[in-house]
Write the structure tokens for this entry.
Amino acid sequence: MTIPTAPAMTAEILLSETGTSWIKTSTVLRKLQQDVPPATHAGSSTGISPGESLSFDAEWLNVVEQRILASLPPEGYSVKGDTAWLQPDVASAALDFFKRTSTALPSEPYIYSSQAGDLVAEFPVTHGKMTCIISSKFVLVFAVVNDEVVQKKLLRTPTSLDSIRSEIQAVTQLLNAGTNGKVGSKR
Amino acid sequence: MAKWVPNAEEVGPGETVGRRLFDQPSLVGATDQKAALRSLDYRNFEDDREVSLDRLGKGNPEKAVMRYLTPRAEAAGRARKPSRTFDGWTAITVKKLAEHKGMKLTIAASPIVGQNPAEDADKDISANKFHCHVSGPDGSEPYFLALHLQMLFERHGTLEMSPNSSPPSLLKKALLGIIGIFMRLAEKSR
């Protein structure tokens, strides 16, 4: 069976009565809104019943997706300058970003909209944090590891999310290693 | 004590500079989130290639200077759309900014001449003789400049309340005190 893939699409495995099948969710944000399950902090489960979904995402992903979707402005509302709402194209980019990278990120993000309209995601770690700024065109990554600044501007293209995930995973590993080293050296 | 008169040509390394803090809304769908202690909102550092600062004192922040600056900061908050409440400053020494290795930062004096020169200079709130700005190297991304500043103020900065704003609630005072203690402890542990 060929697994359908397409840029900016998300996929999840559903176990049905007849077996495993791939379901594509729409790239259209309104459709995504219907597809994201209600927010839960459910951890991993070992027994999977028919109809139950099998998730390979971080356990906080659903909650963050819900926060993003609930921050979309009402139809026709101009969000320019109002950081209480997210621009739909930025929300779409952020949903895509988190879906693809959640397990490579260090922790549940604290999210808000920048004045410029991008999504700011701050990931606290034991001795600092990593910040990502997500726009429809790029992702910025910023972290301080052992007093060294790591900063990257990663351009988004239809096929770049895998490489963005790898870059982020590398920063997360540096952060974890840096934190462990610091703790170890104090002992 | 007479108010400090800053050098209009350059900013001294021993001076304290502050970035104005304004209230920032949560996302409508994310009001259940809790910001980490010691964190400063990135939006407070978003600007352009040059980020505006106030010179708060020749050494430590001076109350007379902050009294002069407060109506200007409050007016700046009111001028925003939607309007914002001025919540004081996050303050740091120029030396700490200048010695930062992650990005070369340049701090320059840039006093603002008022639009009503006939008025008493201190009463003209369009003027700011304590204004300065910080910039990164040529061609640096404003996003990264803001992120560097956010990190530096979080790690090395203090919080300064406006001396002539309405008295903060006990809860707000307690919270600011706790955050200040954490910031100092974090600074000492480095």
